[in-house]
Amino acid sequence: MSEERGMGIIVETIARATIPLIGIFGAYVVSHGHLTPGGGFQGGATIAGAGILFLIAFGLGEMKQHYNKNLYSILEGLGGLAFLGMAMLGIGVAFFYNTLWHNGPIFNGRPGTLLSAGYLPVMNIAVGLKVFAGLVSAMVAIASYRRWGK
Amino acid sequence: MMAPEFFYAVVVIVISAFLALFRVLLGPSVPDRVVGVDTVNTLIVAAMVLLGAAYDRTIYIDIAIVYALLSYVGTLAIARYLQGGLK
Known about the structure:
The structure holds 2 protein chains of 2 kinds.
Chain A: H1 9-31, H2 40-66, H3 69-87, H4 99-103, H5 120-143
Helix pairs in contact in A: 1-2, 2-5, 3-5
Chain B: H1 4-26, H2 30-54, H3 60-82
């Protein structure tokens, strides 16, 4: 088996079916982080599991065609900046003051519904984006590192 | 509601997971241990679903789904390593 190629037709077909499933379920875990178990890190790691499945099933050559280092570094920075921006929204009262929940226009629905809990869903999405981009970048960097061989 | 029959089923599954753990501990070759770990993963998913039913919490099923998806990726990574891919 060549090192740049995939694992065979069965694994690739199953990966084509499974990667959207893992991605959608990870997005569900991220977006329902304030209602169900999980949240930003757990959902982000689940979506990164989809990326790792792509890397394993299709090989490094296919992954390098779909992976953009600058885009993933921008996404990771954007996740951190969105988290910090949500923390700075209520800086008139205090740092990390949940002003979206107390008097914000959105995300202040009845507790238990999806659009509640103030800045928590936005922070979960930011952390999920950061974890996904960071883990996929780390896995691609480790996979393309050559110490032995050519 | 704590339903006792779900706990009995969990006890049966945990006993069979320990039986599969013997294959992991004293399997003579590496693929034997990988198959043992895969069996333990599947049994643990079943135990998680049964415990979610026993404690009457539907949100516990989410963890079982995530564990089933990610154990597949883990087994696939070991298989890829054993066949010598991604050098």
